[in-house]
């Protein structure tokens, strides 16, 4: 039995019951905490440094539209690019996900950073350097929470990068599960 509150982050389903000498003494109690929300589609601006032949079908907004069937694509021979997001108000994020169109010989990323605007400069929240290796088609990352109204995906080394979705996750509220019912049941058990 937990003697202190059990703290969880993100969507979690916890089922608990009280047992004594192998016998269940009460019903199974279920606790559910909500998942973090992707806030990237809420960006009021999504500006790419480059997009394929200036065709709006491939502009930066497509990487954050919440539609896995559209993508931001860069022009041929692009080796670096940025996607700048502006949000209506500062948000706190602590994780992100990149889903990229990946063709091993033509479209890939070998180095990138997730950056945020603070103190009049871009600062790094997360940095990935594959040392020549390619980023997987889908990549999730966690980092220390940062707060800003401007977030940047900086593709520092790539070959014709193309992003299906760039997702940003707000830091979910910390949920403390109420274990009072279980503690009350436990207190009635006579050893």
Total DSSP helices: 1
Low-pLDDT runs of 5+ residues are none
Structural class: mainly beta
Mean pLDDT over the residues: 86
Give Rg in angstroms.
Answer: 22 Å
Distance between the ends:
15 Å
Task: Give a quick summary of the entry.
The chain has 191 residues and is mainly beta.
Description of the structure:
Helix content is 4%, strand content 51%. It is mainly β and 191 residues long. A hairpin with a 2-residue loop joins strand 9 (108-118) and strand 10 (121-129).
SSE diagram, text form:
Elements: E1 6-8, E2 12-16, E3 19-20, E4 23-24, E5 29-33, E6 45-48, E7 72-73, E8 81-100, E9 108-118, E10 121-129, E11 138-159, E12 162-170, E13 175-177, H1 180-187
Antiparallel strand pairs: 1-13, 2-5, 3-4, 6-8, 7-12, 8-11, 8-12, 9-10, 9-11
């Amino acid at each position: 039995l937990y003697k202190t509150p059990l703290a969880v982050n993100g969507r979690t389903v916890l089922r608990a019951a009280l047992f004594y000498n192998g016998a269940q003494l009460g019903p199974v109690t279920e606790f559910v905490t909500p998942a973090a929300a992707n806030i990237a589609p809420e960006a009021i601006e999504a500006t790419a440094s480059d997009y394929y032949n200036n065709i709006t079908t491939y502009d930066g907004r497509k990487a954050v539209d919440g539609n896995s069937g559209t993508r931001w694509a860069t022009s041929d021979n692009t080796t670096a690019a940025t996607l700048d997001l502006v949000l209506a108000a500062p948000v706190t994020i602590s994780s992100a996900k990149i889903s990229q169109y990946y063709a091993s010989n033509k479209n890939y990323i070998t180095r990138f950073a997730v950056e945020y605007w603070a103190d009049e400069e871009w600062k790094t929240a997360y940095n990935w350097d594959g040392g020549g290796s390619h980023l997987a088609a889908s990549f999730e990352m966690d980092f220390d929470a940062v707060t800003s109204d401007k977030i940047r995906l900086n593709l520092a080394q790539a070959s014709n990068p193309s992003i299906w979705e760039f997702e940003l996750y707000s830091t979910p509220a910390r949920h403390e599960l109420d274990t009072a019912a279980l503690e009350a049941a436990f207190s009635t058990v006579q050893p």
